[in-house]
Design a protein that fits this description.
5-stranded mixed beta sheet, 5 strands, about 30% strand
Length: about 130
């Protein structure tokens, strides 16, 4: 059938069979775990990063932002944000971390436990 082969949809009428809804969004970490969400951006010769740390109740317990004049790519900027996240965790003596980034390349390329030789039970996911 042409509709199935080419995925032609009628956007004027509502579908007879609705698509399943995927629940996406921030989720609280487990008890005793600190979740750090970090992100970075590059514009011209500047990069900026930010991170927010929350406890198992979702309460903000720390954060950090920064701007550097450095000609770098997006992946390097995300790596810098990861480094800042780890430094904040060390400063605050947070031992159980859940690290979250929107950078799929970073998540697929690096495993913190091995790459950074850390004792943290880290999880990097998209």
């Amino acid at each position: 059938m042409l509709n199935r082969d080419f995925r032609i949809f009628n956007f004027v009428e509502k579908p007879m069979i609705p698509k399943p809804v995927e629940e996406k969004g921030w989720q609280k970490p487990g008890t005793g775990v600190v979740k750090i969400n970090f992100d970075a951006a590059v514009y011209g010769r500047k990069m900026s990063f930010g991170l927010v740390a929350r406890d198992h109740d979702g309460f903000v317990i720390g954060g950090r932002v920064g701007v550097l004049e450095f000609n770098a790519g997006a992946e390097w900027a995300e790596m810098r944000a990861l480094t800042e996240s780890m430094e904040l965790a060390r400063e605050k003596n947070w031992l159980k971390l859940d690290l979250e980034s929107d950078c799929a390349n970073l998540a697929f390329k690096y495993n913190c436990t091995k790459a950074f030789d850390m004792d943290y039970p880290d999880e990097i996911h998209d």
